Amino acid sequence: MSSIFSKIIAAEIPSYKIAEDEYFFAFLDIAPLAEGHVLVVPKQERDKIFDIGDEYLGRWLLFAKPIAKAIEKIFPCNRCGIAVIGLEVPHAHMHLVPINSSDDLNFTRPKLKLSAEKMKKIQVTITEALQA
């Protein structure tokens, strides 16, 4: 059975897509810790990050890097934090979150509830920064 992320990649479920290439897909988290919270997933469905083939692990970070840089430019933060938790969905995924302290990556904190209009605005802002 396909994970929800595989369904998003296949466009069976709508998403706020940020970037895509032949191996990876990035989209806004719909329950973000902060505005600009992006999920980066491999198109190859694997439950755990270390089940991903060695040839893809480095590519994953290289794919995420310009997205992280765009997040740092757009959102007021000290840096773009990265977290790989992987408990919510059985499909390896990386969280890119604008942070000012390590507590900003506390996934037990309440998540934001953003309107569709706000999510679309964030999507456009990040995608435009990637093209600049």
Name the quaternary structure.
single chain
- The tally of helices reads 3
As a percent range, the share of helical residues equals 25-40%
- Total strand count, please? 5
How does the overall form come out from the CA principal axes? globular
Rg estimate, integer Å: 14 Å
Task: Write down the overall mean pLDDT.
Answer: 95
* Main sheet makeup: 5 strands, antiparallel
The assigned structural class equals alpha+beta
Cα(first) to Cα(last) distance is: 38 Å
The string of secondary-structure elements, in order, is: HEEEHEEH
Strand % is 15-25%
Low-confidence stretches are: none
What strand order characterises the main sheet? 1-2-3-5-4
What tags apply to this protein structure?
single chain; 132 residues; alpha+beta; five-stranded antiparallel sheet; 3 helices; globular
Plain-language structure description:
- The protein is α+β, with helices and mostly antiparallel strands and 132 residues long.
- It contains three helices and five strands; from the N terminus they run αβββαββα.
- β1 and β2 (24-28) form a beta hairpin.
Topology at a glance:
Elements: H1 4-9, E1 17-20, E2 24-28, E3 38-42, H2 54-74, E4 79-83, E5 94-99, H3 116-131
Antiparallel strand pairs: 1-2, 2-3, 3-5, 4-5
The gist of it:
This protein has 132 residues and is α+β, with helices and mostly antiparallel strands. The chain contains 3 helices and 5 strands.
